[in-house]
Amino acid sequence: MKPVNEHTEGEQNSVLPLRECPDCDSTDSRLEYAQQSFRYGRGDEAVDLTCEVPVYTCNKCGYQWTRSEAEDLRQIAVCQHLGRLTPNEVRGVRERFGLSQAEFSRITGFGEASLSRWETGAQVQSASNDRLLRLIQADPRTLHRLTLIAEANDHRGDPTFRVITITPELRRRKASFRLFMRAAS
């Protein structure tokens, strides 16, 4: 395999720019794909997952490293293991309707920060949230119904509470109130 930064005449170069080797600062490196296993979960629930990730190898010192795309692929493996939508699929559901994160959050009731974490892969959505996303994905009428619910809630305004004015009568009733325990039968 040729180094990633080597360019052959007539070839299109669509490779991401290389970073320097973290060990020796050389930019002479090659890209290969390798199976990588990693542990997901804790304790007895932990499982070993495997995915193929891009691995850079420095041609000068032999140091190997991965970049953010490897983390993205590990996140996809976790989502597949859990049976959840991947970050790109979550984003795709929202973008299909041309909605911003703020608009989609208002309609669905998802927290805007949570939605952002799901779309970037910083967090995997819960099973219940994943199911709602899948319902929206499968049938656009679901989002329409949620929009109607959100609009009805928006028109209600902030909830109001009845204010109780402390009167002499309430003070008298408070002072005379006593709890008594019943005798066991």
Written description of the protein model:
The chain has helices at residues 68-82, 87-96, 101-108, 112-120, 127-138, 140-156, 168-176, and strands at residues 29-40, 47-58, 64-65. With 185 residues, the protein is α+β, with helices and mostly antiparallel strands. Among the domains are: 28-67, no CATH class; 83-154, Orthogonal Bundle (434 Repressor (Amino-terminal Domain)), CATH 1.10.260.40. The chain has a three-stranded antiparallel beta sheet, covered by helices on one side. β2 and β3 (64-65) form a beta hairpin. α2 (87-96) packs across α4 (112-120) and α5 crosses α6 (140-156). The radius of gyration is 28 Å and the shape is elongated. Residues 1-15 have low confidence and may be disordered.
Please render the helix and strand layout as text.
Elements: E1 29-40, E2 47-58, E3 64-65, H1 68-82, H2 87-96, H3 101-108, H4 112-120, H5 127-138, H6 140-156, H7 168-176
Antiparallel strand pairs: 1-2, 2-3
Helix pairs in contact: 2-4, 5-6
